[in-house]
Amino acid sequence: MKTLIHNAEIVNEGRRFKGAVLIDGDRIEEVFEGDAHIFNFQFSIFNSIDAKGSLLLPGIIDTHVHFREPGLTHKADIRHESRAALAGGVTSVMDMPNVNPPTTTPERWQERMALGASESRVNYAYYIGATNSAFDSSFFTPHTSLPPIKLFMGSSTGNMLVDKREALIRVFRFAAEHDLPIVAHCEDTPRINERMAEAKQRWGDDPDVVHHPWIRDAEACYRSSSLAVRLAHETGARLHIAHITTERELTLLGGTVTGEVCVPHLLFCDEDYPALGARIKCNPAIKSKKDRDALRQALADGRLLTIGTDHAPHLISEKQGGCQRAASGMPMVQFSLVSMLGLMDEGVLTLERLVDAMCHQPALLFAIKERGFIRPGYKADLVLVKPEVWTLQQSDILSKCGWSPLEGHTFRWRVWQTYLNGHLAYDHGRMDDQVRGEALTFDR
Fold it and tell me: Which CATH superfamily is domain 2-56+378-395+410-431 in?
């Protein structure tokens, strides 16, 4: 039986209009504009969903998550985190390679793909991790399921730092030759190490987390990002700078260099550390209100192309301590869409730009096939959201770690339904655990 979602306000490709979407199997069959009664449907042959008062958006594509499997499943795993994603209107994720063991060989990538097929409740892809060693060339034979290369140019979770200049040049040249985008974590490790040593002299062996943006400061970010941009220009590689956190880095964007902003850096600033402490400790660090406001403006005007979450769960016990001891990262994937709708309500960005940054641009940037838009013939990944005032309680959290820095926050929108490849996979709190995601494919 086909499904007709009607009376919705559809937001797609820069437009908002009242209309209906007809789903047949796993795909969108047709998109209609206007009132449902003019379509002359025989509703008895359809599963009819009256979406009056709701927004109908393409399913969110989050190109920056850490679901922690394999090797770190005490804090997160594919099943729990993908369920959280689905409840948040996220239908596709691209998972980072710094697991244990890291995803740096064809065999490890295939193992993760098998895990995704078995466990993921959303569509999935797994990044290729760059290292200081040479690539296994067999990894990069034409393959429609291969996502971009992830490059850690700053020390972070997982010990995957690439810091040798010859290795960096090799990665950029290889990416240019094979037309694979590079997604780079940019922080200057020598600068961070120097600042940490000085911080310990000033404030003790485990400096309070309020000093985290002083240690991992704007200069550390700019040094690394500007080096990545120079290498991209020298080699012709396409570069996407992950989780940009500073106003100065925005000057580096343009041409084949694009940027991502992550939800925590749009929501929080250094003024929030006294209240939230290590719950908002992440790498790169959340910085000043001036930086946060500059990121918001750059997102609104399109200089920052995509929104990710850097969803990075840790147990709350691992988040205790300060700059040295507390783990960096936080869970965000379940509440990214409703958080960004909150920024829309504040006038930070339009609904059309939100959909562009969370759906359209991720699909275009990484050439994800048949997703990210509400178009006939595309996969039926859709999310319905409704205006509703509610306050986040711990019992609402589906991530395995069981906490969120947003606990106690009041939202004004709620994810009502999430359709995954045509299936109603999430329906106002009810999850269809029989539904599995598909491997994302790429047009290359």
Answer: Urease, subunit C, domain 1 (2.30.40.10)
